[in-house]
Write a structure and sequence with these properties.
Elements (H helix, E strand, L loop, with lengths): L1 H20 L2 H4 L5 H10 L1 H26 L2 H7 L4 H40 L5 H4 L5 E2 L5 E8 L5 E12 L4 E16 L2 E15 L2 E13 L18 H12 L18 H12 L4 H10 L11 H25 L4 H24 L4
Antiparallel strand pairs: 1-2, 2-3, 3-4, 4-5, 5-6
Helix pairs in contact: 1-4, 3-6, 4-6, 4-10, 4-11, 6-9, 6-10, 8-9, 10-11, 10-12, 11-12
Length: 362
C-alpha cells in the first residue's frame, strides 16, 4: 500500500510540474485548453512508468528499515518465519511489479502518448489571441508569419502584415503577402478568420509577382496548425512495430516492413533497439533492486555499523539504478554493451542469491 500511494504521489508531483511546462502549447503554440488538458491527462502513464523503479526502491528500502527500527522483523524471526521465506515473498512481489511495468511501458504508455499526440495532429491553432503580440513577428503557426503593429482597446488590429508560404521547392517558391490597415479577429462556427480592411495582396508564383488592392476580405486561419511536432515519436510507436522492424532487420528483409508511423531504416535502428530494450528488458532490474534491499535484514539495528551499512547499501543500490540508465544508452553501440545490459541484472541477481543461500545467511 505504501508503494502504491508513494508512486501515485510522486507521479502526481512530476505530472503537475510537466503540466506547467506544457502550458507552452497554449501560450506559444496556440492550441486551446481542450487540447492542453487532453494531452496532460494522457501523459500520466508515461510519468508513472518513468518513476516506478526509483519509487519501488525507495519504498522497499524505507519499509524494511522501518520494520527493523520497530522490531517488527525480530517478531517475524521469533515466530519461526525464516529470512529466506520473507525474501522470497519480496522477490515474488518484485516480479509482479516487473510484469506490471512491462505492460505499462510496452502498451499503456505508448498508447496513451500516441493518443495525446493525436490531439495535436487533429487540432487547428484555435487560440490566436494569445499568439498575436504587438510589434513582433509571430511564426509559431506553420507556413504563416503574422505581424501586428498595434491593437486598440476595442479589439481592432492596426497595420497587419501576413505572409503565407504556399509551396517551397528547389526551383520555385510560392508565397502570398497581405497588408491591411485594419483587421478584426472573428470566430464563427468553430472557424477563425481575420476580417481585413483597406489593404493590398501580393502573390509570387512562377517567379512572377502580381498584386491588387482590396477594401475588405476574410483570411481563413482555421486551416493552419502550429509547429508543434504532430508526428509520433519513437516512444509512442506500438511495441509490435518495434519488434517487427527488429525481426525483419535480423532476417535482412527490412524492405518488407510496413507501419503507419515508424520508419524502419538502418540509421534509426539503434534508437529502435534502445526503445525496445527499455520497454521489455529494463524492468528486469527490479528483482535485483528488491534483493539488494533485502540485505538490510542481514544486519540488526543493534550492530555498531548498522547505520553505515544502511547508508552504503543505499548508495550502492542508487548506483545500480544509474548503471541501468547508462548501460541502456550504450547498449546499442556494441554487442558487448547489449549483452551487459541484458545479462548484468540476471547474473548479479542469481549470484547474490546463491551466495546468501549457501552461506546459510537466509
Amino acid at each position: 500500500m505504501f508503494f502504491i500511494s508513494t508512486s501515485l504521489v510522486i507521479a502526481l508531483i512530476v505530472w503537475v510540474i510537466q503540466a506547467v511546462n506544457f502550458l507552452d502549447f497554449v501560450t506559444e503554440d496556440g492550441h486551446g485548453f481542450k487540447v492542453y488538458f487532453s494531452y496532460i491527462l494522457l501523459s500520466f502513464p508515461k510519468m508513472l512508468n518513468r518513476i516506478l523503479p526509483f519509487v519501488f526502491f525507495i519504498s522497499l528500502f524505507y519499509q524494511l528499515n522501518n520494520y527493523e527500527n520497530k522490531n517488527e522483523l525480530l517478531i517475524f524471526w521469533i515466530n519461526g518465519v525464516k529470512k529466506k521465506q520473507f525474501i522470497n515473498i519480496i522477490i515474488i512481489y518484485s516480479v509482479l511489479i516487473t510484469i506490471l511495468q512491462i505492460i505499462l511501458g510496452s502498451y499503456i504508455s505508448p498508447y496513451s502518448q500516441n493518443e495525446a499526440r493525436s490531439f495535436i495532429r487533429s487540432s487547428n491553432v484555435d487560440f490566436f489571441p494569445s499568439l498575436i503580440k504587438e510589434g513582433k513577428f509571430i511564426d509559431t503557426v506553420s507556413n504563416l508569419t503574422i505581424f501586428i503593429e498595434s491593437k486598440s482597446s476595442d479589439g481592432d488590429y492596426k497595420n497587419i502584415f501576413l505572409k503565407e508560404l504556399i509551396s517551397k521547392d528547389e526551383e520555385k517558391t510560392q508565397f502570398q503577402i497581405i497588408y491591411a490597415k485594419k483587421g478584426v479577429l472573428v470566430s464563427s462556427d468553430n472557424n477563425r478568420y481575420f476580417k481585413l480592411y483597406d489593404g493590398k495582396i501580393i502573390n509570387k508564383e512562377n517567379n512572377k509577382i502580381k498584386s491588387f488592392n482590396f477594401e475588405k476580405i476574410n483570411f481563413n486561419l482555421s486551416k493552419y496548425g502550429s509547429k508543434t511536432t504532430g508526428y509520433p515519436k519513437i516512444q509512442e510507436v506500438p511495441s509490435y512495430d518495434l519488434f517487427n522492424c527488429l525481426y525483419l532487420n535480423f532476417k535482412k528483409q527490412i524492405d518488407l516492413f510496413e507501419a503507419e508511423y515508424l520508419q524502419c531504416k538502418m540509421e534509426s535502428m539503434n534508437d529502435i533497439k534502445e526503445e525496445f530494450l527499455k520497454r521489455f528488458f529494463k524492468p528486469i532490474y527490479l528483482p535485483l533492486l528488491a534483493l539488494l534491499c533485502c540485505l538490510l535484514m542481514l544486519s540488526s539495528k543493534e550492530s555498531e555499523n548498522y547505520n553505515k551499512i544502511k547508508f552504503y547499501l543505499f548508495i550502492f543500490i542508487f548506483f545500480i539504478i544509474v548503471v541501468s540508465e547508462i548501460s541502456l544508452r550504450y547498449s546499442t553501440q556494441s554487442q558487448t554493451g547489449m549483452l551487459f545490459f541484458i545479462l548484468f541484472p540476471i547474473l548479479f541477481f542469481f549470484s547474490l542469491y546463491s551466495i546468501l543461500h549457501f552461506k546459510n545467511n537466509l
